Amino acid sequence: MIKAIKGFNDILPAQSAKWLHLESILADVLGRYGYEHIRLPIVEQTDLFARAIGGATDIVEKEMYSFTDKSEPPTPLALRPEGTAGAVRAVIEHNLLRGDTPKLWYIGPMFRYERPQKGRYRQFHQLGVESFGSALPDADAELIAMTHLMWQELGLKDEMRLELNSLGEIDERHAYREALVAYLTDKQEQLDEDSKRRLTTNPLRILDSKEASTQALLADAPKLAEFLGAESKAHFEQVQAYLTALGIEFEINPHLVRGLDYYNKTVFEWVTDKLGSQATVCAGGRYDGLVGQLKSIGTDNTKPVKSEPAVGFAMGLERLLLLVEAVAPIAELPVCDIFVVAHPEVYSAGINYAQDLRYNRPDLRVKMASATSLKAQMKKADKSGAALTVIIAQQELDDNTISIKDMQTGEQQTVATDWLSSKENFVRQ
Ligand code: ATP
Ligand code: MG
What we know:
The protein has helices at 13-32, 46-53, 58-63, 84-93, 137-153, 170-185, 193-201, 212-218, 230-246, 290-295, 317-327, 347-360, 374-383, 394-399; strands at residues 36-37, 43-45, 66-68, 76-79, 103-111, 123-132, 160-166, 251-252, 264-272, 280-286, 310-316, 338-342, 366-368, 388-392, 401-406, 412-416. The chain is α+β, with helices and mostly antiparallel strands. It has 3 domains: 13-169 and 229-327, Bira Bifunctional Protein, Domain 2 (BirA Bifunctional Protein, domain 2); 174-222, no CATH class; 338-421, Rossmann fold (3-Layer(aba) Sandwich), CATH 3.40.50. Helix 5 packs parallel to helix 9 (230-246). The protein starts with 12 loop residues before the first helix and ends in a 13-residue tail after the last strand. The mean pLDDT is 95. Magnesium ion (MG) binds at residues 58, 259. Adenosine-5'-triphosphate (ATP) is lined by residues 82, 112, 114, 119-121, 124, 126, 259, 278, 280-283, 314, 316, 318-319.
């Protein structure tokens, strides 16, 4: 038997109904903010991710599904590990930024080779949102406010904690990185193995090490906030002021650095206590340099390329659904309201009846069983979860009637053929 690949999950009908429900709530909130939907390819050139995300990140170092296709010369390609790089590529390629400030969202599978566990898979799904063209802190606050409204609509308002930090501008971060490396280099024997390696590859990631001994060392380390310039500080303070005005609570987490290189200024995470160590449900931040960085690929780098400010986030939908199931479960919706049963000799009339009903009452879900014996069809009706079964037989056809059976009480009665056309007679529970 050939089975699904480890970390790649089937989403079966009982679950998929919940996915659709969740996605429709998220899409509805995005619509209320006037964000537009974009559909992007799942495969891109590997180089796009390497350039955008950064070579010394977990994703590029060890998590990418990359391969070459059959073209000549072979092109290195990768399954997308995240959505921002592709969204920025599309925005540049199609000139969407010319005279406009696109606010975009997408939803779909992402791929990372990591150790599968609860809330962590190799194929997982993200809702991604990217807002281009504004360097002002209101754009950061709008994204956070939008996610806040999503939590409200999903009944998760009390489960999510907002953590904020500012990474400053690239040069400020570089100055801080040097100071951090200088401080830790003497003490590197006390660092955990991962952090020791990161000291030369991506020192800022040491800040979010889970090791208590490393965290203890960091207590006296230089602080990123002390390296922020006046502009970065003012931006960060204004984001906080907007959130306060909106009544959105937050905590400053000076160790929040995010795993991807493209961020600057504001970074944020929505965290929950209900999902163990896979605690981050939604994460994002500002990335003012990425558009320019990707635009300059292939140029001779002599002329500076103009960037465009942007801010975005990605939400892990598996984690979100796990959380919804833990605190505000989505009711299982019956897949059938009306079951139509027809005697095999008048089955064609049954098909016609069901077809008309689906046309006239689009609010109802109408099912039939195949043209087997009446008894076998009734068995299917019993199992279907329908509120009502309609029975079509020769006698009823002659009289212009149908028989209806209330599946809860078992009560049966004869009514006019068009009885279900009226919402006054029957509404979906
Ligand atoms: P983590 O620290 O948990 O590995 P990350 O920083 O790698 O997360 P991001 O790249 O910021 O994650 O992705 C945004 C969100 O996507 C995460 O907060 C999480 O909800 C979700 N996510 C990331 N990787 C996975 C995965 N392998 N399986 C399921 N969800 C994931
Ligand atoms: Mg990760």
